[in-house]
Write a structure and sequence with these properties.
The protein is an alpha/beta fold and 516 residues long. The chain has two domains: 220 residues, Rossmann fold (3-Layer(aba) Sandwich), CATH 3.40.50; 262 residues, Ribokinase (UDP-N-acetylmuramoyl-L-alanine:D-glutamate ligase, 3-Layer(aba) Sandwich), CATH 3.40.1190.20. Helices cover 41% and strands 14% of the residues. It contains 19 helices and 17 strands. The strands form two sheets. Strands 8-17-16-15-14-13-12-9-10-11 form a ten-stranded mixed β-sheet, sandwiched between helices. A seven-stranded parallel β-sheet has the order 3-2-1-4-5-6-7, with helices on one face. The radius of gyration is 27 Å and the shape is elongated. It starts with 5 loop residues before the first helix and ends with a helix. 51% of the residues are buried.
C-alpha cells in the first residue's frame, strides 16, 4: 500500500479524472459513502440526534456533506455546521450542499468567532463529531478561528472521526504545524498519507481506516511512489501450506555465528527465531566457552564450538572452521552478542567478505564494518543489514539522533548506494531496497524495546530467507510478524513486563493469523 503526500495525491486524483474520465464528483460521492460505511461500522448504536459534522468549504467539506446525506438515509439526523459563510461555497461542495438542503438536512452556518462562542455550549450534547474542515491541503497553521474550533472539539467527550486527515495537519509532513484536531479515528481516502504513519502527527490520527474511493490502480502506479506501508494484504501468498511429503532439508539450514562469554543468550534467541519462522535446521557456532550454555538453552538446534580469544570472544583462528561449516547451508547470519573485540571484528570481516551465501548482519556483525564499510559491499551475494539507529550511526559516522531525524531518507539512500537491503529498526521499522523503495512496518509496541528483541527478529529473517523467500519478501514478512507477535504478547501480559522470550512465544500465533 502506497504512502503518499498531498501533492502526490492531487496528481493521482488528476490522473483519474483526466486520463480515466472519472468525474471528480464521482470520487467525492465514493469518498463520502465510504466514510459513511466506516461510521456505521464504528458507531452502530450512535444516537440519531447526537452526530455533528463540522464542514469547511473545500473537497473535504464536500465529503462530509455526502456523509451527512448517507447518514440521513440510514435514519440518523446529523447536524451540519458550516464554518464559512454559506455564499462562499462553490463547485462540488456547493453541489453537495444543495443536495443535502433538498432532502431536508439540518444545516447551520457558524462562520464567526462570536457565533461559535455561543454554539460551543451545545458541543457536550454530541456523541460523535465528524471533522470535515480542512483536509490534506493545509500549507500553514490554521487561522485563529479554526484553532478555537479544534480546541473546543478536542475538549469534549465526543468521539472524533476525521475525514482524510485531522484538520490542522499537513498531508506533506509528519510535523504538527499548530493546533489540530485530536481524532479517535481517521478515514484515509484512497491512500494513507504521511501523517497517518509517522510521528508526531500520527499521534493525532487515532485508528486509521483506508477507504477505496474508486481510483484505478494505474493512477497510483504511474506516480512512482517509493514509500510503502506493509499490510496483511501485501503479504498474502508468502506463507503457503507445506506439502505432505516435505522434510526438514527443504526448509533451509541456517548457520548462525553469534554469542560470546557473557552473551550466550543472543545466539539462542537468533536460533529460536529462525526455527519459529520455519527453518528446517539451524546450526549455531559460538566461541567454545559459550557453546554448552547455548546448547542447553535450545535443544532443537545444533551447535559448533569455535576457537576463542582469552576474553571468550570469536578468534580469527575460527575462520577456517566457519568456512567449512558453510557447506550445504542456505544463509549465513552473523553478529548478535559477538562483542566489539578487535580480533573478533577482524574475524567477522573476513568471514563475511569470503562467503558466497546470502548474508544477514546484525549488532556486532554490523559494528565490525563501521570502520571498514568497503569490505562489506560489492560482492556477488545479497546482504541484509538490521541496525538500530546507534549501529546505523556508526556506519555513517553520525549520531543516532541524526539518524532518527531523517530515518526514511537515510534508509533509502544507504540501501540504494550500497545495493543492499536494510532493516532500520525502531518505532515504525523501515526496510530499504537497492531500488530506492522504502517499506514501513505498522506493527510493534514500546514493550518490545527490550534486550533480545532484535536477536529474535534476526532469527526470523534468517529462517524466512533460508526457506527461499527473497530478501525483500523475507524482510517485509519478518518485520511485520515480529511486531505482530509483540503486539499479541502485549495484549496478554502488557508492555511493561514484555521480554524477548514472549515475542518468541507468540510467533506461532502471529504466523497462524497471517496464514489464515
Amino acid at each position: 500500500m502506497k504512502i503518499v503526500t498531498s501533492d502526490q495525491m492531487r496528481s493521482i486524483d488528476r490522473r483519474a479524472i483526466e486520463e480515466f474520465g472519472i468525474p471528480d464528483l464521482v470520487l467525492m460521492e465514493n469518498a463520502g459513502t465510504q466514510v459513511a460505511e466506516v461510521f456505521l461500522e464504528r458507531y452502530p448504536d450512535a444516537d440519531p440526534e447526537g452526530v455533528l459534522i463540522l464542514c469547511g468549504r473545500g473537497n473535504n467539506a464536500g465529503d462530509g456533506l455526502v456523509l451527512a446525506r448517507n447518514l440521513l438515509a440510514r435514519g440518523l439526523h446529523p447536524r451540519v455546521v458550516l464554518l464559512y459563510p454559506r455564499a462562499s461555497y462553490k463547485g462540488n461542495a456547493e453541489h453537495q450542499l444543495q443536495l443535502l438542503e433538498r432532502i431536508g438536512g439540518e444545516i447551520v452556518e457558524i462562520s464567526a468567532p462570536e457565533a461559535w462562542a455561543e454554539f460551543r455550549r451545545e458541543l457536550a450534547g454530541f456523541e460523535v463529531i465528524v471533522d470535515a474542515v480542512l483536509g490534506t491541503g493545509l500549507t500553514k497553521p490554521a487561522e485563529s478561528f479554526f484553532e478555537q474550533v479544534f480546541l473546543d472539539a478536542n475538549a469534549t467527550s465526543a468521539e472524533i472521526l476525521s475525514i482524510d486527515i485531522p484538520s490542522g495537519l499537513s498531508g506533506n509532513t509528519a510535523e504538527i504545524p499548530g493546533p489540530a484536531i485530536q481524532a479517535d479515528a481517521t478515514v484515509a481516502l484512497a491512500c494513507p498519507k504521511i501523517p497517518h504513519v509517522f510521528p508526531p502527527a500520527e499521534e493525532l490520527v487515532g485508528e486509521v481506516y483506508v477507504a477505496d474511493i474508486g481510483i484505478p490502480a494505474p493512477c497510483v502506479e504511474a506516480e512512482g511512489v517509493k514509500l510503502n506501508l506493509i499490510d496483511e494484504d501485501s503479504l498474502e501468498g508468502l506463507l503457503t501450506p507445506r506439502e505432505r511429503q516435505a522434510h526438514k532439508g527443504i526448509f533451509g539450514h541456517i548457520l548462525v555465528i553469534a554469542g560470546s562469554a557473557g552473551k550466550p543468550g543472543a545466539a539462542r534467541m537468533v536460533a529460536a527465531g529462525a526455527l519459529r519462522a520455519g527453518a528446517g535446521l539451524v546450526t549455531t557456532a559460538t566461541p567454545q566457552s559459550a557453546t554448552g550454555v547455548v546448547g542447553f538453552q535450545l535443544m532443537e538446534m545444533m551447535t559448533e564450538a569455535l576457537p576463542e580469544t582469552r576474553e571468550g570472544t570469536l578468534s580469527t583462528k575460527a575462520i577456517p572452521r566457519v568456512h567449512k561449516l558453510q557447506e550445504e547451508k542456505t544463509v549465513l547470519t552473523v553478529g548478535p552478542g559477538l562483542s566489539l573485540a578487535t580480533e573478533t571484528q577482524a574475524a567477522v570481516r573476513e568471514i563475511v567478505a569470503k562467503t558466497t551465501l546470502p548474508v544477514i548482519l546484525d549488532a556486532d556483525g554490523i559494528n565490525a564494518f563501521a570502520s571498514h564499510p568497503e569490505d562489506l559491499f560489492g560482492k556477488d551475494r545479497p546482504v541484509l543489514l538490521t541496525p538500530h539507529p546507534g549501529e546505523m550511526g556508526r556506519l555513517l559516522k553520525m549520531s543516532a539522533a541524526e539518524v532518527q531525524a531523517d530515518r526514511v531518507g537515510i534508509c533509502r539512500s544507504f540501501a540504494q548506494e550500497h545495493r543492499c537491503f536494510l532493516v532500520l529498526k525502531g518505532y515504525r521499522t523501515l526496510i530499504g531496497t537497492p531500488e530506492g523503495d522504502v517499506y514501513v512496518n505498522p506493527t510493534g509496541n514500546p514493550g518490545m524495546a527490550t534486550g533480545g528483541s532484535g536477536d529474535v527478529l534476526t532469527g526470523v529473517l534468517s529462517g524466512l530467507v533460508g526457506q527461499g523467500l527473497s530478501m525483500l519478501d523475507a524482510a517485509r514478512l519478518g518485520v511485520y510478524v515480529h511486531g505482530l507477535a509483540g503486539d499479541l504478547a502485549a495484549e496478554k501480559i502488557g508492555e511493561l513486563s514484555l521480554m524477548a522470550g514472549d515475542i518468541l512465544k507468540y510467533l506461532p500465533e502471529a504466523f497462524r493469523r497471517l496464514a489464515e
